[in-house]
Amino acid sequence: MRAPSAAHPFGTDRQGRDLFAAMVAGTPLTLRIGFIAGFLGVGIGAMLGFVSAYYRGTLDAVIRGVVDIGLTVPGLLVLIIIAVSLRRGLTVDQMAIIVASLAWLNPARTIRAQVLSMRERGYVEVARLSGMSGPEIIVKELMPNLLPYLAATLVNSVSAAILASIGLEVLGLGPIDSPTLGMTLYWVNFNAALSRADRDHPGRLSRSLLPHGGPGRDRQPQAAESDLTTDVLSVRDLCVHYDTPLGAVKAADHVTFGLRAGERLGIAGESGSGKSTMALAILRMIKPPGRIAAGEVKLDGVDLMTLSDEEMRRVRLDRIALIPQGSMNALNPVIRIKEQIADALRDHRVRMSARETETRVRELLESVGLRAEVADMFPHELSGGMKQRACIAIAISLSPRVIIADEPTSALDVVVQKQVMETLARVQENLGASVILVGHDMGLMAQFVDRLGVMYAGKLIEVSPVREIFTRPLHPYTRMLIASLPSLEQKGTFRGIPGLIPLLRDLPPGCAFHPRCPQAFDRCLTEEPALLEKHPGGWAACHLT
Amino acid sequence: MRTLLEARSVTKVFGGGVFERSSTVALENFSLAIDADRPSIIAVVGESGSGKTTLARLLLGLTAPTSGHVLYEGQDLQQMSRERRRKFRRDIQVIFQDPYGVYNPFYRVDHVLATPVAKFGLARSRAAARTLIDEVLRDVGLRPEETLGRFPHQLSGGQRQRVMVARALLLRPRVILADEPVSMVDASLRATILGSLSAMHRERGISIIYITHDLATAYQISDTIVVLYGGAVAEVGDVELVVKQPQHPYTRLLLSSIPLATTARTWMSEFATVASSADTETGCKFAARCPSVEKVCRETAPPLFKTHAARAVACYLYRDAPTLDADAIGSVLTASAAASPPASQTIQPTRSRP
């Protein structure tokens, strides 16, 4: 037995056989076992998984039963028993089949789960209604979507099969005459056992300990410049760009507005209008490839854009709270409601004893119309409306000046929606906070806000008091949007806006609305209208008025 | 009346198997009939948990009722021959809520249109198939050259939903079941899609079952309306009657909760926040939230009371009116499709509300 040298990079065994050569010879054999077993395993597993999940019923129960029992039995032990009983004169391929005999269990189970999640998809039902048969749906609709998953499963199976085969072979239960990797190891071990190795070479790991990186030291918050405006929040020329290979896409383009103390401002728009982007930009929560390209957001005179990340983190929730879209589904399912509210308090270094925290949590829950017992519940024990109220409770936990609610009721039923909006209105009045309600539902806007801004293609195209916007809208888009809403008063007054919402990366020149505007004239095609005050309090970006 | 598609006293219970402790009644003793000779638009309105999605799946034969029957031309869907089933599949088409999930991301948009053409042998040649597809796409206001050959993610939600309408049209169905077809589509495009649905009804005599949570769009396109609550019919009848003079307390609550896009009428806070107590097992499903609840409501579920030739309400407030068997709902539906008698004939509640 010789140590590694130039001639024998891996050294030799006791018989002087080159271990490098043994590895080169053994690797293809072991890979062969791995691939045959892996393919067989995934093939059989996939077939059973697909059939089991697609057809359900008795067949599924039987297959699932077999798989579950198979998986509870320790696999290697079974393989050892099989291999021992077949030991005489095993070939490499027989070895592969032995390994495959258990390799299908896991794929069958995971693929079944994948198919189960897919079989309720819309396109599977459409295919069924289009007259496709079961096997056809499996092959044409389900398989293609599972290819990446099957490929990943295959890689896993192959490596698992290699490990299993090596495990058996090291025990001497492999193809005795073939120099597979495991058998080579077996022989090395076997020979080594015969004559104890004289030296051992403890491996030395070079450990590199990285210096512990702590967070950057906090900067002192800047003193608030006193700005003589009555606005709590003033947004000026806010631009959010998304960098794409084709250039910057302007998701919010020079958005300017002010929010007064205690006011409820609505920002309405259809999908892609930039309303949510704008809301996130105010909180500096735009993620790459998006970035805030320009503009200022002043909260009580302090420009949020100049704050450090840590200062900004503290401003969020403390001064401006966000009720994000679908927030009720963002509650952590395994943590009690009270812990989630207390977390928010702790995160903002509110020093309170456990007792005080408990009292505060209960107070907050009661203020959003939830019973105090809700504190000890888990999110799944609450209905959608209750979860949304718990989110409002978190949002108001530090008594913010501004609450930004992004589609806070989009997944709720109308009756519950009304209750949640009433709750939001009540807590806002109690706190004396201002609210920005971001959404697409003009009805909700009409019922809730004091002033309404309408966005189209990243721009604010109208801002007016809500009464005026619904009685005499200034912008044709606003007018048509209101006309496109179904009324309960009169039938047949319900008209869509022709054309499509433009893509932000491909905006028409001039006014972005001109291709859909019935009143567009030549100036609209070339010159972009600016947002101007058309009458006191009423702003619009349109050449008509 | 010759019925085309009919649900007869259908009940669907989920769970309750050997290993499950609880079961959920998704739909209870529900009946609905569509006249073969007189096409109509029926709206089924309900909130989440009302059973409306279960109803859609039952009517499409995608799931079997626990009791009762779904009949197509008088024949039970569960006992249909292969041939009949093919015809059924063709005659009853569906438009799903989610214009994203109904497309297999692996294929181009053409796939959803080409498959039914191939499966139902709608065209002899490739060119004929293409002509047919182009034609239906134009019918729903899409330009074929801008639509075909694209992947689903390259189209907007409104375009995708219109492709699904086109797909339904392709098969020249007799009934289209539209399950929340516009709830995921932008406001400015909703009217366009609902417009093409009602044009199909007008011009081609296709009956439409419009399933929705939105009373306002339901009012705009339908002739008759079924209001579901907790898997049972709360109120059914002529859409003008039900929306303008709602009788069931739930219908009233629903109507008053709709945020209307007008500042003239603000949200009425009539009985917005009724604390929900424990649900009753046997009584009226709405009893826990109802402001007019009586003792009997918690004990026995109310039958339908026929308060008008074209309307029935499941509420004891109207117990003076004759009762209506659930499987006779069809009579109310057809009466309302015809000219409604003057509203003065309607029966008023026997008890004034508090």
What's the architecture of the largest domain in chain A in CATH terms?
A: 3-Layer(aba) Sandwich
Strands in their spatial order, largest beta sheet of chain A: 6-7-8-3-9-10-12-11
Helicity level of chain B, as a percent range?
Answer: 25-40%
> How are helices and strands ordered from N to C of chain B?
EEEHEEHEHHHHEHEHEEHHHEEEH
Strand content of chain B: 15-25%
H/E series of chain A: HHHHHHHHEEEHEEHEHHHEHEHEEHHHEE
Mean pLDDT of chain B: 82
Please state the CA-atom Rg of chain A, rounded to the nearest Å. 33 Å
Largest sheet report of chain B:
9 strands, mixed
Structural account:
The complex is a heterodimer of chains A (545) and B (354). By secondary structure, chain A is of the alpha/beta class. Chain A has helices at 19-55, 57-72, 75-85, 92-103, 105-119, 122-129, 134-170, 181-194, 275-282, 309-318, 337-347, 354-367, 384-395, 414-431, 442-448, 466-471, 476-483, 522-526; strands spanning 231-244, 247-260, 264-268, 290-299, 302-303, 320-323, 402-406, 434-439, 451-456, 459-465, 532-535, 538-540. Chain A folds into 2 domains: 19-194, Orthogonal Bundle (MetI-like fold); 231-449, Rossmann fold. In chain B, α3 (110-119) packs parallel to α6 (157-170) and α6 runs parallel beside α7. The longest helix of chain B has 18 residues, at 187-204. Helix content of chain B is 32%, strand content 22%. Chain B is globular, with a radius of gyration of 21 Å. At the A-B interface, α6, α7, α14, α15 and α16 of A face α2, α3, α6, α7 and α8 of B.
